[in-house]
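YM 10:42: Acetohydroxy-acid reductoisomerase sequence, as discussed on the call
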Amino acid sequence: MAATSVFTQSISTIPSSSSSSDVSGKSQALKLGVISSFSSSSSYSNVFKSLRISCGSSSTSNGGGRGSCLGTKMVSSPSVLSPKFLDFESTVFKKEKVTLAGHDEYIVKGGRDLFPLLPDAFKGIKQIGVIGWGSQGPAQAQNLRDSLAEAKSDIVVKIGLRKGSRSFAEARAAGFTEESGTLGDIWETISGSDLVLLLISDAAQADNYEKVFSCMKPNSILGLSHGFLLGHLQSMGLDFPKNISVIAVCPKGMGPSVRRLYVQGKEINGAGINSSFAVHQDVDGRATDVALGWSVALGSPFTFATTLEQEYKSDIFGERGILLGAVHGIVESLFRRYTESGMSEDLAYKNTVECITGIVSKTISTKVYFLTLIIMLSLHRNCGLMRPVYLSLFQQGMLAVYKSLSEDGKREFEAAYSASYYPCMDILYECYEDVACGSEIRSVVLAGRRFYEKEGLPAFPMGKIDQTRMWKVGEHVRATRPKGDLGPLYPFTAGVFVALMMAQIEVLRKKGHSYSEIINESLIEAVDSLNPFMHARGVSFMVDNCSTTARLGSRKWAPRFDYILTQQALVAVDAGTPVNRDLISNFLSDPVHGAIEVCAQLRPTVDISVPPDADFVRPELRQASN
Ligand SMILES: NC(=O)c1ccc[n+]([C@@H]2O[C@H](COP(=O)([O-])OP(=O)(O)OC[C@H]3O[C@@H](n4cnc5c(N)ncnc54)[C@H](OP(=O)(O)O)[C@@H]3O)[C@@H](O)[C@H]2O)c1
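YM 10:58: structure's back
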């Protein structure tokens, strides 16, 4: 195995501090977030300490109650697991070291200038079979084909689909044809390929793995874009057959964004979606370079190492959390709260969805370009108070969101953050453990089987998720949105969203994930890949362009976040529960902010553009067919 995993013994933890409290007025919660101050300081105290613990030692954290008592205990308790340190060797690509929050990690930077290395990386491969044409299939197949063509490689990229699949027509439209030998039957494609990218739904992988394995050539390479299949095999005490290599390249973004940014990246070298990679089995020493070549060919700005197990835990968890499910839950609960308190529906939509998908995502993701700044200043030219907000966007990250608020806005943010952090963590923690123990994987496999009529019971395909009043209001808001408008920065919404993001980061950190994985799964994928889709066309357009696994999980977990925020967080704000100052000071000094800045510098800042006629999205979500 070329990629080796070595556990480090050093972990970082955010500082423990004595509990303190500060009462913040509950009435702040429903004020319009007009910003009146601007702090130019981007510095934050990077105070954290390293604990020396032995790998696998268990945490003593487990508060008996809620609120600041539990809060202080959990925030200050040591990590459950130390982050995995994953090193690898490549004979083709340059490995680089990055230091994230004090931890050294290794990555490979991408770029179109690396395409000439692909023939070397793919040595021994004549045909790459891309199996499936859902979200990832079209993106990966086309990116690979384009990159190999640019490298003047004669490796064939062939699509394999199940008999009678409606996707044959889509694949043909993208230029893959039976006549040219680039489109065919699933099993014939698997048995004829040297590298098989298995991009059918995870539930279908679980139901068909035996036949897939039996069709594969000895010494060929199985490529996955998820660790799900390993999780499923593990739950039955199984593993992959020993006569094939098993690798993964897992884009940290939906297929349409993998394709869209690759195309945009033709003009800005290095634009794309980051990927993790894993080498689970390596029968002949080629696996690491093949995986890295695959990732570079997809257009990943940087590729970081993981294991299949860490991947499925963080990925399935992340999409149920802030990436899809939790963000959906947040906006549903806040829209209801704002409208019930008398806010107009349009404004409530702007103060929830537009705030998160616009100004908050933009601020976290990137410094605003000069041109955007001019547009925003001119749109809000009559509101002098908004100037500092837009000027502050030359900063980036979660701290920039907070720092761009007025003193009143900061208090509102803090009240929302303090009340939401532990309720969000409660559901996130449960979700992580459901994923880690295999329950969530089992749930996805069983749901996949209910798509079809059986045992005398009807079929239950996935239902729609954007049919309520809120999303109709959204259609109207988007239709009248001035070009380039990023929506209002509403402090309460920002406080809930950032609390959720930080709670997710903390759960992944406590569970021993690398910072590359944590930041991609909790932040970069949200603001760079997914939220732009909700900004463009609403929640279904974001969720349903993702994998079947993600779509099912989002539907299952979104109501849990809606419920807990409504039942606990918002009630606490209304009851005037004191702000947990420890949480706020830990947020301000968390080492993750520095790590995010490092990750941001590893990719060019390219905004994903989702035009109305986007042809890179799932057919059923294209505007013409709506
Ligand atoms: N989508 C994402 O955002 C994303 C991101 C990272 C990783 N991934 C991973 O990428 C892989 C592919 O996911 P995806 O989202 O692209 O696909 P998906 O939407 O989950 O699945 C769609 C594909 O699966 C095929 N399929 C479904 N049931 C099948 C069966 N019984 N036999 C054969 N084929 C079957 C479909 O065939 P038809 O075309 O015939 O309907 C379709 O091509 C998964 O491992 C996923 O976890 C996805």
